[in-house]
Design brief:
Layout lengths: L3 E5 L7 H13 L12 H4 L4 H13 L12 H10 L3 E6 L6 H8 L8 E3 L6 H11 L1 E6 L2 H7 L5 E5 L14 E3 L5 H4 L1 H9 L1
Parallel strand pairs: 1-2, 1-4, 2-3, 4-5, 5-6
Helix pairs in contact: 1-3, 6-7
The structure holds magnesium ion.
Magnesium ion (MG) binds next to loops.
């Protein structure tokens, strides 16, 4: 069986932050500046709780989920993993009714049937349970807690380092990369093992 390789979407394949900041500028009627590397959007863009709520409402109302651009390295990375024999899936913490919007953002890179929407409040533990149920062998995410939760469950948990403030340390067994294009190289041994099995 081809190794199942799972990608997180926002911050890995898709540039959610750029899209959300654009929506914020549009909705609030002023330029939005990133003031910190906080993962939390309100803190990152120095917004009030009320402003942040307004932006989220606009993001959902105007279906910005359909217009989240992909990162430059997304297509090459996914195509390289697929060419090497990987079976590609995605996981994302949004509600299930956004699955088609997510597929539209991905522009055909991953079909909606292979995008698992966990719900916006899904925990790292729940994400790891889904990876286990899928029999995933490799997983890449930009949140340390999500990758740490997958250690011991899948063969290759990989963190795409994004310099967010206040994240826990990567656990022993996590591979850290700075460039998504390194992901196919990191998981190459999985494919070799699958081919020789
Ligand atoms: Mg993410």
């Amino acid at each position: 069986m081809n190794p199942i390789v799972v990608f997180d979407l926002d911050g890995v394949l898709l540039d959610f932050a750029a899209s959300w900041a654009q929506c914020a500028s549009w909705e609030l009627g002023r330029p939005i500046q990133k003031v910190s590397d906080a993962y939390d959007l309100q803190e990152r863009y120095a917004l009030s709780a009320r402003e942040c709520h307004r932006v989220w409402s606009a993001f959902h109302r105007d279906t910005w989920w359909e217009r989240v651009p992909s990162h430059d390295s997304a297509w090459d990375t996914v195509c390289n993993v697929e060419a090497a024999g990987g079976s590609i899936w995605a996981v994302t913490n949004v509600d299930a009714h956004w699955v088609h919007a997510r597929a539209i953002s991905l522009g055909g890179l991953i079909p909606s049937g292979r995008i698992i929407c966990l719900g916006e409040d899904a925990s790292a533990h729940h994400r790891a349970e889904i990876l286990e149920a899928l029999h995933a062998q490799a997983f890449v995410d930009d949140q340390v807690a999500n990758v740490n939760a997958a250690v011991g469950i899948i063969a290759a948990p990989v963190l795409l380092h994004q310099s967010y403030q206040g994240q826990e340390e990567p656990a022993h067994g996590v591979t850290v990369i700075d460039d998504l294009l390194d992901f196919p190289v990191v998981i190459e041994s999985l494919f070799k093992a699958a081919q020789s099995a």
